[in-house]
Design goal:
Helix content is 43%, strand content 12%. By secondary structure, it is α+β, with helices and mostly antiparallel strands. It folds into three domains: 5-73, DNA Methylphosphotriester Repair Domain, CATH 3.40.10.10; 82-189, Homeodomain-like (Arc Repressor Mutant, subunit A, Orthogonal Bundle), CATH 1.10.10; 204-349, 2-Layer Sandwich (TATA-Binding Protein), CATH 3.30.310. Helix 7 (133-151) packs across helix 9 and helix 7 packs across helix 10 (183-189). The longest helix has 19 residues, at 133-151. The radius of gyration is 21 Å and the shape is globular.
């Protein structure tokens, strides 16, 4: 386990000097002379060891006054696999923060869901991650804002509220502090092919989901297709497509495997659901997993160790707890063919009220029909 690796200075220095991408997301390197923080695999010349200090999270770096590197973009690294495999307070809190609970319900709402006092949650997160829930949520909002700025043509005011900021002034101040650039400067630096690829009316976004190599997409997506729920999941045009039931509305995601990333195209009813949609897609594909740790656990079984598949292949793919529970029970009781028949039934009977303003209740909507070419 690499838990609390940032405290092992010698090991962190070796990882930075060798530009080892396996450690991206496990810790962050802050350079005291430049006041910049980077991922371990940053392509620039490594700083002197005496000028490095290490933090367990991007939020801790930002809280200490460091800004994100413009070259390696440390805020876009895969997350720590600890949060998806542990069941303690900190891991549960990180999953809920990733799902946008702090943005919607505040720290008291987060604490209530965890069954602890807000003070206890704050203390535990500070002890392990160097930042409290507000700082962690702020770092997440900053990353979401950057994504929207660089990949859409949305006005900055809409981006601010879609990313979860309470005001445009807070949005501007946070972006300047974290990235050392104003929102308009970030958009100007974005690749022209990416900027303006989505509009406010379409609600469609195209982005890349990074992962730790190696990943075997054939096994992972093959299992998702084999166990897919008709009307909710399908394989079309080289992409796995499914609907999502989100706090502010519904969404449709198309996930396409590539050698270095997973292509993700999202069509959302409300852009405020962007953060939680990305979080759920990453969790479903287990993109934060550590292949080295998986290989170590399966070392005695070479055939299994050679095929990293994610949680979907090992058990049940899921985007939320309710879906996980249904899939887990069915997966243990019936065959795959029978499960495909029975899984759609709860979708037609259940009514899950969505939280948040403007939310609509109801089951997962059916996938839209493919567009047909119009006659000449």
């Amino acid at each position: 386990m690499l838990e609390r690796m940032h405290t092992d200075t010698e090991r962190c220095v070796r990882a930075v000097q060798s530009k080892d991408a396996r450690f991206d997301g496990w810790f962050f390197t802050a350079v005291v002379t430049t006041r910049i923080y980077c991922r371990p695999s940053c392509p620039v010349v490594p700083p002197k060891a005496e000028n490095m200090t290490f933090y367990p999270s991007a939020a801790a770096c930002q809280q200490a006054g460091f800004r994100a590197c413009k070259r390696c973009r440390p805020d876009s690294t895969p997350g720590s696999p600890e949060w998806n495999q542990r069941a303690d307070l900190v891991a549960r809190a990180m999953r809920l923060i990733g799902d946008g609970v702090v943005n919607r319900e505040g720290v008291p709402g987060l604490a209530a869901r965890l069954g602890y006092s807000a003070r206890q949650v704050e203390r535990q997160l500070l002890a392990e991650l160097g930042a409290g829930p507000l700082a962690l949520a702020r770092a997440q909002r900053a990353q979401t804002a950057r994504l929207l700025i660089e990949t859409t043509a949305l006005p900055m005011a809409e981006i601010a509220f879609a990313a979860g900021f309470s005001s445009i002034r807070t949005f501007n101040d946070t972006v300047r502090e974290v990235f050392a650039l104003a929102p308009g400067e970030l958009r100007a630096r974005a690749p022209k092919a990416a900027a303006g690829s989505a509009t406010a009316t379409s609600g469609a976004l195209s982005l890349r989901l990074p992962f730790r190599a190696p990943l075997n997409p054939d096994n992972l997506f093959g299992h998702l297709i084999a166990t897919g729920v008709p009307g909710v999941e399908e394989w079309r045009d080289g992409a796995y497509r499914r609907t999502l039931s989100l706090p502010y509305g519904h969404g449709v995601v198309a996930l396409t495997p590539h050698p270095t990333h997973i292509g993700c195209r999202l069509n959302l009813t409300d852009l405020r659901d962007l953060t939680i949609a990305i979080s759920r897609c990453r969790r479903m594909l287990d993109l934060d997993a550590d292949p080295a740790a998986v290989d170590g656990r399966l070392r005695d079984d070479a055939a299994r160790a050679a095929r990293r598949q994610g949680p979907g292949a090992a058990g049940a793919p899921y985007v939320d707890e309710a879906e996980f529970a249904v899939r887990a029970v069915l997966g243990q009781q019936v065959s795959t063919a029978a499960a495909r028949t029975r899984r759609p039934r709860p979708r037609h009977r259940a009514r899950h009220p969505h939280r948040g303003p403007g939310a609509r209740g109801g089951p997962h909507p059916p996938l839209p029909e493919p567009r047909r070419p119009s006659p000449l």
